[in-house]
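[SOLVED] Need 3D model of a two-part complex

Original post:
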Amino acid sequence: MISKSVLLILIGSALVTWIPRITPFILGKMVKFPAIVTRFLEYLPLSILCALLLETVFSAKTGTIPTPKWDVVLALIPTVITAVWLKDLMKTVIVGIVAMALVRLVI
Amino acid sequence: MEEVQTDEGYTTFHDGIKSCLPTVLGYLGIGFSFGIVGINSHLNLFEITLMSAIVYGGSSQFVMCGLLLANTSITGIVMTVFLVNLRHLLMSMTASPHFREESLLSNISIGSLLTDESFAVFSTTVAQEKHFSLRWMEGLNVTAYITWIVATFLGGLVGNFISNPEQFGLDFALTAMFAGLFLTQFEWELSKSMKKSISVVLTVTISLIILLYFFSSSVAVIISALLGCFVGGLLHDK
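Solution:
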């Protein structure tokens, strides 16, 4: 049903993912983070969402200059318009998927 | 801190399910794609569903499939997954102070299920200065978690018949979801301070493009997000 090496990989990966996820929640129960840390982290949501979005746009390989993935850029145009105009995440995702399917059909 | 009255729509578990709904389609698209990719990476239905249940990190799971196909060593895969998912540390640090008053077990359960998307929904709620309850956060997290596992399973079921989910544009659900979540957060931050939010976004954009040359993309994301926080924090009182 499951090979031993896959099981080891899954357990190892689960642990290294879980520990950073829960550690701040455990520490946060015991100590209060310094005000300066909280002040800087106030900008994390905006920063990390911006970074995660751009990460999916650029095709990157260490040592080479990152270039935009043009199919992603093209599909992003109607997606962003929908997001700004309708302010509805579900419709944004639908428009995005359809736009990307069309872009790949043409390119 | 005294008990704060929660706002309407952010109180019950059911409210949390409702807050999660806009992201459900994104999870379905990505989870379904993952299921297909997983099966085509020679994993079986049980293995991919288990992976979604215990690793529960979208991009890292796609990376794992690629590494398995490339016959990477167990340590190599686990170390890569660690780096790809390390950004959760920052998100948990940001979210955890809001749950200080809750029990240790509740804190662990919230941290265990924190994702980019649930963190984004949570952060928008914070930016809107809404008061939310623990039950609301649990509803948000659990809905996302179940959707992810179900979507993986369904993708896995059709994985033998479809080898390339990309032709349907399904992989773009991730970018589309990040775009929608980012723009929502950006709009709220812009309304608070235009100069600060634009400075933060420019910092992240420029630094990420430069960092992608030197580091793996997961490390570049973490460093550029920290630089964004740094610039935002410096401009804080001006």
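Edit: Chain A touches chain B through 79 residues (CB under 8 Å).
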